[in-house]
Amino acid sequence: MRLSRVPAALMHQRLDGTYYHPDALALDARFRELGNAIGLESIRDPERPITNGVRGPELANSEYKLVRLQDCVDWEVRTATSISIAESQFAENSRCRLRSGDIVVAIGGYVGNAAIFLGDTPSVIGQHSARISLALNG
């Protein structure tokens, strides 16, 4: 999904907003339904701090994946397109491992783009993203 750079408030005023920007308008409506935002500290897992990812991948033919920003498409992480890294590099970077339900957020490129990891493929994040783990008990 591509989002418009036009602010949502202006899209609501445009006659062609629903034609050219339906996804952005739908997301804006969902955010408005949520009402007041809650602080991240109240929902993130305190045992897994927000962290950035691996620098300089060691490419290898393995089951271990390095999730890059281009692997985050339509709000989900797609490990099928991720590159494979060495088992030793995966082991060294336990701080940035992904588990199902983690959110991957861009901290480079288009900052703020996000996706959720729903798989079970052993994966870590790349250097231009951050991992946010939500508390399992809610």
Order of helices and strands: HHHEEEEEHEEEE
> How would you state the average pLDDT, rounded?
82
How far the N terminus sits from the C terminus, by CA atoms, comes to 28 Å
The amount of helix comes to 10-25%
Considering the chains and any ligands shown, give keywords for the structure.
globular, 3-stranded mixed β-sheet, alpha+beta, 21% helix, 4-stranded antiparallel β-sheet, 4 helices, 138 residues
Describe this structure in words.
The protein has 138 residues and is α+β, with helices and mostly antiparallel strands. Helices cover 21% and strands 18% of the residues. It has four helices and nine strands, in the order H-H-H-E-E-E-E-E-H-E-E-E-E. It has helices spanning 8-13, 17-20, 22-34, 87-92, and strands spanning 51-52, 65-67, 72-73, 76-77, 83-84, 103-106, 114-116, 123-125, 129-132. The protein has a four-stranded antiparallel beta sheet with strand order 1-9-6-7, with no helix packed on it. The protein has a three-stranded mixed beta sheet with strand order 5-2-8, with no helix packed on it. A hairpin with a 7-residue loop joins strand 6 (103-106) and strand 7. The model has no long low-confidence stretch (mean pLDDT 82).
